[in-house]
């Protein structure tokens, strides 16, 4: 997902009886559906796992602007350009909501950014794929934002108050993202044969990377079990992937496009589609930094940060000078 | 590492006649920039008619461990609620 393979304590879920009184009271609050707020007591593992997860989610929103930003100046009409600009601006907002949520856990914004820039924190694998044609912008809104929604909707109920509130805000804005993408796909799919072919090509390239967004199967992962007990993860990766496929197949059919999977078939018994797994070795390679655009994406982030240093410092110096002058005048 | 821009808490009045409500926070070098950033971050879809910003360090919050002593004293004062009193139906609306 936007946060993939987040590690928790690695110890597995403790039984209520094995917990310290504080831990037990904490777990019971979560089990009752209470929200945990910033200054309240929380286990160190909960705090650290959340920083990793929310931080990675925030980084994904920010880095996720880059593949789409590539097409802002090349959008086919002024209206499409304005829409894409608004969508990408929303993603910047999503990143900011999430950084603020992470900061309530005692990490600074600069620390989070430093960890992204040094490669110590990741962002979603999906943003390491290139956007080669305008149809890719359609495929991203439809599939990538669609997959993100699958994961973000249940996270609105997460146990950590600031994270939950950020998710509620984000979910309100996401459906515009998915619809504008699908709208591009509809236009392309009903266009000239060449346009339809572009749409099909975008689907072919983005299908498996979208399935990878949910991460490998985690039904046996101790990290996921702990995160689910803490309600910072609500569904297993496989559950969400299945839901995504079931929702997306009819949408592709409506477009008259073909999902690039020979094994795709409706399974009456489970009430969902059978489908092929993505190539997980490719996923691990992308996570390691060897995807098609990893260097370009991280390079662009680091450059923006470094090129903006004089500006951040200048505004800070100006603000300090102003407030000193104001004090002197009082 | 250079100094980070300070953190500001953002409050928005959603509609005329309502209170300003806390919506989140952001970093900005000064109050003027904080308002401008708040406009872009928190009101992209007509969410507000007015913005307040205050630097986070100026907010004093009650501590979670004081929740009992602070709020419990009002728990047993049920007579503060109108439903505490039984008024006969014959009296009419009150
Ligand atoms: Fe987003
Ligand atoms: Fe989005």
Automatic annotation (TrEMBL), chain A:
<feature type="region of interest" description="Disordered">
    <location>
        <begin position="1"/>
        <end position="24"/>
    </location>
</feature>
<dbReference type="InterPro" id="IPR011881">
    <property type="entry name" value="PaaA"/>
</dbReference>
<protein>
    <submittedName>
        <fullName>Phenylacetate-CoA oxygenase subunit PaaA</fullName>
    </submittedName>
</protein>
<dbReference type="GO" id="GO:0010124">
    <property type="term" value="P:phenylacetate catabolic process"/>
</dbReference>
<dbReference type="GO" id="GO:0097266">
    <property type="term" value="F:phenylacetyl-CoA 1,2-epoxidase activity"/>
</dbReference>
<dbReference type="InterPro" id="IPR052703">
    <property type="entry name" value="Aromatic_CoA_ox/epox"/>
</dbReference>
<dbReference type="InterPro" id="IPR007814">
    <property type="entry name" value="PaaA_PaaC"/>
</dbReference>
<dbReference type="InterPro" id="IPR009078">
    <property type="entry name" value="Ferritin-like_SF"/>
</dbReference>
<dbReference type="Pfam" id="PF05138">
    <property type="entry name" value="PaaA_PaaC"/>
</dbReference>
<feature type="compositionally biased region" description="Basic and acidic residues">
    <location>
        <begin position="12"/>
        <end position="24"/>
    </location>
</feature>
<dbReference type="GO" id="GO:0005829">
    <property type="term" value="C:cytosol"/>
</dbReference>
<dbReference type="InterPro" id="IPR012347">
    <property type="entry name" value="Ferritin-like"/>
</dbReference>
Automatic annotation (TrEMBL), chain B:
<dbReference type="InterPro" id="IPR009359">
    <property type="entry name" value="PaaB"/>
</dbReference>
<protein>
    <submittedName>
        <fullName>Phenylacetate-CoA oxygenase subunit PaaB</fullName>
    </submittedName>
</protein>
<dbReference type="InterPro" id="IPR038693">
    <property type="entry name" value="PaaB_sf"/>
</dbReference>
<dbReference type="Pfam" id="PF06243">
    <property type="entry name" value="PaaB"/>
</dbReference>
